[in-house]
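This is your field. Pick holes in the following sequence-structure pair:
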Amino acid sequence: MDSEKSDSTPFIKNGASVAITKTPTPGKTPKPGKEGRGKAMRQILAAFVANWGTINTGMAFGFSATALPQLQSAASSIRVTESEASWIASLSSAGTPVGCIVSGYLMDNIGRRMTLIITEVPLILGWILVACAQNVPMIYVGRLLIGFGSGMVGAPARVYTCEVSQPHLRGMLGAMASVGVSTGVLIQYVIGSVTSWNILAGLSTTVPILSLLGMLFLPETPNYLLTQDKTDKAESSLIKLRGSTCNLQDEIQKMINFKEKNHVEPLKTPKEIIKALLAPSTLKPFAILAIYFFIYQWCGVNTITFYAVEVFQASGTQFDKYWLTISMGIIRVIFTVVGCILCRRCGRRPLTFVSAIGCGSTMITLAVYLYYVQYWKDNHLPPQHSWIPVASIFLFTIFCTLGYLIVPWIMIGEVYPTQVRGIIGGITTCAAHLSIFSVVKTFPYIKYGLNDYGAFGLYGAISIAGLAFFYIFLPETKGRTLQEIEDYFCGRTKTLKKVNPQTEIA
């Protein structure tokens, strides 16, 4: 009992910790029927609008892949050097971590909705600057703003979605952000192949403009409004998000009871914020997600995304490398949607296990094939069975998309305490992008030291090894309310599994 109480200290009132009453184990209550749920279409629409801006993250990734060859051609109005091209590609990544931290701070101070509105401003300005660029510095500034805005949008989109969704829809709707990123990459691949880089940038401006206009019509989340002691506005928000089919009073009363029982008050001073961030209820889920993102990125997913053409070239396949890249983008979008549906039905842990095993085995298969490619080259032999690397990469994309690409991003909006959900969500998104940077930046060096087959063998081994971590530490949050998840990480309940009430300690 004492060990449990020592973990239950995330909530702070007037600068001091307060006693937390342990959440009583609920008795046998009938499972609410579908007739008691809110209108699904309202929640789907709110999540769709909130996640529309995440398309920009994928567009920021995909833009340089199609724009740089044009900018380096002799016919370009702005001719760039190799060095300038590398800056154009990387500057968006430089702005992303900063945007993550800023949006996390803003979420807890001005709200999720207003943060999502502000997020679109640097994105609009960035795309306009690139579209109207007369010189390389204008492109630099535009790319920096695009990266900053893309970093800002990640956490608030996911937190907003999780806070406005009921448990039975939260997994599926939380995965919309991953669909947005995959769609953004594909949009740049396809449109960029048939138009010029500046027209592509101009067309890209429509995405943040539509996102900003859409967010003007959405309400703030009830959870955030309750932390600001705006109960009437929270009820009004819930009515807009649920409609008349939901037991509104029951849902809002549960939120109010949770807030009052656990003294969920707005954190005013830096000391209060730091103390809440260092509480076990924050550090435990942060550690789980930070390691999850590291394993997920070091399975090689963004190495494949950023260096797709180069990887297909190295594999010795006889198929057209650019069509293979576009096909891979299409597969990624399709199976991200499939992953959204499966996340609602299967849960977080099973999909993660599928990704860990599938990504590990396909990367090792690719590594073995690339080893033979090197052998064939050294002995001046033609490559054989060139369909194997293509199948490995496509299967890798499918397995990665079903779990890795969706689950940790959903959990950003689920596992953190209400008081610091915004700022720690931003820090987690920052950690995710730093993991992306680490694997993409080191790939050329690893490839140089270990050859292609060694690099992909390493990625496969990391994914397989990650299975042990996921099995031991990754909780299943499917179907659990945000309050139940918070109770678990605070130590007020021992498990997120649905157990017999008699087995629980009173």
Observations:
- The first strand starts at residue 12 and ends at 13.
